[in-house]
Write a structure and sequence with these properties.
CATH topology of the domain at 2-203 and 387-398 and 587-641: Kinesin
CATH class of the domain at 2-203 and 387-398 and 587-641: Alpha Beta
Strand content: 5-15%
Bound molecules: adenosine-5'-triphosphate
Number of helices: 23
Number of strands: 18
Structural class: alpha/beta
CATH architecture of the domain at 2-203 and 387-398 and 587-641: 3-Layer(aba) Sandwich
Length: 642
């Protein structure tokens, strides 16, 4: 979200920029929460009571301390005790200086109403109880007062409440910025509508969060009333029914669906554009229903040609072309750099399935990217000299029973974010005291750079490089490629944060030990769309489909296409550049979210799990640095200006 300055601070005009993965100073939207940008209250009565309590909270004494730099004893246990007291008292927010700690209440506390917005408007954070609105207010105030860019970095594990916090910041800024002008209102509506729209396209239920951000991986696509693309209920599609979970408590798919449609209208998507989006979703769902059988000669053949025919119809392509691209790879020999003869290599069932899945994923990914850029076109900043408030909300750290490539990527990006936090708070702050020759006893903290290196190093090869090497050996058999990966992993055994255990390997992440299963990893890493399938989309009679795949691969290029691991590394390094380099110039705020229990229970405070999060988030070190240092730090120029 960007906000451009007007003369008077409060009449700031709102505009927006959204980038995938929260790169640059922008709202990063992971996808797919409940459709509404502003979550629905639970029960009306309950909400009123909570609201009354909260208003009372302004007057009554709060539980524990609201800023943990004031704790008498600094230990993980004391932090835990304080958070517990407050959480049980309905006070989910606590500060460590300017860092906001948020413990997920798993219930509607009635604390995000318009009345609450008014209570926080224009207030310094020390005047009012801790709240995410206070972080939003101070970013907004600082942006206007100092004409400086701002960013809010939200971290925490999956289901801890990051997306919720990001939405509340957007809610607050939309409410306090701009005037009543209808064009400003239109932009505000658009900013808020980005939530249901982008969320609908990128989230799925996981064991750790009913609405977990996935971006293009593991999606539940539930639609009805789309007869024009031959669509039925979610039970009819392999992709949506495989999990055997068609209903999620608290989520009303029909309501969310209507909200998504409404959001599309607010953003300004034309009927034609909406239609093309649904067409693409239909292609993906039908691709998932495509079954390959083994022919007598051991190759793949499509079980039901009717499905291929329908996919070809949706892709506005020719059935024979689609059938061939899905079951045969066209190879071309090369001699001394010259093109040789061309011949057809039939695919086996495993290869055909991989191609089908890669096509479905590529369409989904490119569609999501298209939606993000389309939203940005609608919301592009309307004035020059705009300042920014960026809100970064990424997918949270994940540990499952079965952890695979997806968890490795997610957890790697979380490691990078932790690095940024360390860099900007613990390390930079301590270095500043040394630089300023202020007497300082160094405070030790765990630097997770060693884990980042373990995953991303090129030389000696880290996990991603080992995966790429194994993929490059081009084993047609995924099991053989996985074995090659296991062999290469042995080279990492000297790293104290790694342990190779046959078909599994253990990474000691900053947030906990995760055991990854090797099976299928090389296949997921390849994730490349073979040229024949790209030719199908490029040859479609439909300009929208062609537009989703603008870059045709160069058939003569010797460079191997980037793997999924390469892409996630590139994204993480963008994140690093944008945040560490650009946002160092902006004033960062942090929200560290905590998940109180695995059962989404509003009453269970799981001491062990929370203590673990307190430790790995480095809250104790954060308090120590903050307490030993100066409470107010600003440059001399700014002090004078003020
Ligand atoms: N402040 C809050 N008040 C009420 N409920 C909340 C709050 N924060 C989170 N929740 C509840 O917890 C659920 C999970 O939160 P959220 O989706 O924000 O987690 P996340 O950290 O973004 O997870 P992931 O990394 O998996 O995307 C929400 O759907 C909501 O039900």
């Amino acid at each position: 979200m960007t906000a451009a300055n007007d003369e008077a601070p409060r009449s700031t005009v709102l505009a927006g920029v959204i980038r995938q993965c929260g790169i640059d100073m922008a709202i990063s939207k992971k996808a797919g929460k409940g459709a509404s940008g502003v979550p629905k209250p639970e029960k009306k009565g309950a909400s009123k009571v909570a609201k009354a309590d909260w208003k009372e909270g302004f007057k009554k004494k709060q539980a524990g301390v609201s800023d943990m730099t004031l704790l008498t004893t600094i230990s993980n246990e004391a932090i835990n005790e304080n958070l517990q007291k407050r959480w049980q008292n309905g006070e989910i927010y606590t500060y460590i200086g300017g860092v906001l700690i948020s413990v997920n209440p798993f219930k509607d506390l009635g604390i995000y109403t318009d009345t609450m917005v008014q209570l926080y408007k224009g207030k310094n954070r020390l005047e009012v109880p801790p709240h995410v609105f206070s972080i939003a207010e101070s970013s907004y105030y600082n942006m206007n007062a100092y004409k400086e860019n701002q960013c809010v970095i939200i971290s925490g594990e999956s289901g801890a409440g990051k997306t919720e916090a990001a939405k509340r910041i957007m809610q607050y800024i939309a409410a306090v910025s701009g005037g009543q002008d209808s064009s400003i209102q239109q932009v505000k509506d658009m900013v808020l509508a980005t939530n249901p729209l982008l969320e609908s396209f990128g989230c799925a239920k996981t064991l750790r969060n009913n609405n977990s951000s996935r971006h293009g991986k593991y999606l539940e696509l539930m639609f009805n009333a789309q007869e024009s693309f031959g669509l039925q209920g979610p039970e009819a599609y392999a992709i949506t029914s495989r999990s055997n979970c068609l209903e999620v408590p608290g989520i009303d798919d029909v309501e969310d669906w209507h909200e998504t449609l409404k959001a599309m209208q607010v953003i300004g998507l034309s009927a034609q554009e909406q239609n093309e989006i649904f067409r693409m979703l239909a292609v993906i769902l039908w691709l998932g229903n495509l079954v390959f059988e083994e022919s007598d000669d051991g190759y793949s053949k499509i079980d039901d040609p009717g499905v291929t025919e329908f996919i070809a119809y949706l892709l506005e392509s020719d059935t024979a072309t689609v059938d061939k691209a899905l079951t045969i790879r066209v190879m071309e020999t090369q001699r001394s750099g010259r093109r040789g003869s061309v011949y057809d290599v039939p695919l086996n069932v495993i290869q055909a399935q991989a191609g089908r899945d890669a096509l479905a994923k590529a369409i989904y990914n490119n569609l999501f990217e298209w939606i993000v850029s389309r939203v940005n076109i609608s919301m592009k900043p309307r004035t020059a000299h705009s300042h920014l408030i960026g809100v970064l909300d990424i997918y949270g750290f994940e540990i499952f029973q079965d952890n695979s490539f997806e968890q490795l990527c997610i957890n790697y990006v979380n490691e990078k974010l932790q690095q940024i936090f360390i860099e900007l708070t613990l390390k930079a702050e301590q270095e500043e005291y040394v630089r300023e020759q202020i007497k300082w006893t160094p405070i030790k903290y765990f630097n997770n750079k060693i884990v980042c290196d373990l995953i991303e190093e090129r030389r000696p090869p880290g996990i991603f490089a080992a995966l790429n090497d194994a993929c490059a050996t081009a084993h047609a058999d995924p099991a053989a490629a996985d074995n090659a990966f296991v062999q290469r992993l042995a080279g990492l055994s000297s790293n104290a944060h790694f342990d190779s255990r046959g078909s599994q390997f253990l990474v000691k992440h900053y947030a906990g030990d995760v055991m990854y299963n090797v099976a299928g990893m090389t296949d997921k890493n390849k994730d490349t769309l073979i040229k024949d399938l790209l030719d199908v989309v490029a040859g479609s009679a439909n300009p929208f489909i062609r537009g989703l795949f603008p870059d045709k691969p160069d058939p003569n290029s010797k460079k191997r296409p980037p793997t999924a691991g390469d892409k996630i590394k590139a994204r993480a390094s963008c994140l690093e550049c944008a945040l560490v380099e650009n946002l160092m110039k902006a004033r960062p705020s942090y929200i560290r979210t905590i998940k109180p229990n695995e059962n989404r229970s509003p009453s269970e405070y799981d001491n062990k799990a929370i203590l673990h999060q307190i430790k790995y988030l480095g809250l104790q070190e954060n308090i120590r640095v903050r307490r030993a240092g100066f409470a107010y730090r600003n440059t001399f120029e700014k002090m004078v200006e003020r």
